[in-house]
Amino acid sequence: MNERWTEALIPDQSGRTVLITGANSGLGLRSAEVLAAHGARVLLGCRSPERGETALNQVRAAASGAKPELVRVDLADLASVRDAAAAVRELTGDALDVLMNNAGVMATAQGRTADGFELQFGTNHLGHAALTWLLMPALRGAPAGRVVTLSSVAAFGAHLHLDDPNAEHRPYRAAAAYGQAKLSNQAFGIELDRRLRAADSTVLSVLAHPGYSATGLTTNMASSYQNPLVRTTLREVGKLGGMLLAQRVERGALPQLYAATAPGIEGGDYIGPVFVARGRPTKVRTLAPARNPEAGTTLWELTAELTGVTPDPR
């Protein structure tokens, strides 16, 4: 792999259609701009119509080929996920080249999705898993569809509480819940790869993480704590980390852009910064708990039960 890879090396994306969740800001918006500039038809998956329209205008200004389009999707509401999947299938004629599962909520105060799930697990994992399964016919309809699922360095040291994924029988901790959600993203991407390979599918499941990027993670985490001293301390640590470690969004988006476009990518590859927190994108190793086949199977079956969506990885 080219350790000096930059977005300038992205192949021409003309004729390809990409759906990016959370495309109204941060890594998602940057990915949308870059892919549109390289000729892709970009579908911006956004929860807020207002913020979506603002992002759409920004991506339109960068586009060199097909006009970008807005798809409303609230990953914390499975009815919205179903509607969005149906809209994407109609818009694409069942030919979607890339699904970039980018959106997420980070270290929030305890909350619930529209369907009653813990907010971070429900949004970051369940919403994306359901969307992926519902869009599988469109991904199969493309010559070489790819699912790019974003994990995070927050998955390090996290645990999969698959007997209590919604924190109903244990104390809620915002950071731990976020870590579980991002470890679930990783385990889901790996399990999806296993099942796609077993089915001899042409669709690839790939993973990526942005390292430590300036997207507001520490600020969001700080605001979830009730203790004013803890909130203030975390905000100050975030500022210091931002100055010393955090890379710009332009750099943070490179791993997911590489995963979505680079030739030679294989199913199950995990792309992240070469120095973990920052640096050029490179292939990195997935975490052992996410690679555990038993955990992958359990998460897969639990996800199908909770979402009511029938998995179809072929």
From TrEMBL:
Assigned keywords, A-Z: Oxidoreductase
Keyword Acetylation: no
Domain of life the protein comes from: Bacteria
Residue ranges crossing the lipid bilayer per the database entry: none
Gene3D superfamilies listed in its UniProt record: NAD(P)-binding Rossmann-like Domain
Family annotation (InterPro entries): NAD(P)-bd_dom_sf, SDR_fam
Name listed for the protein in its UniProt record: Oxidoreductase
Origin species: Amycolatopsis halotolerans
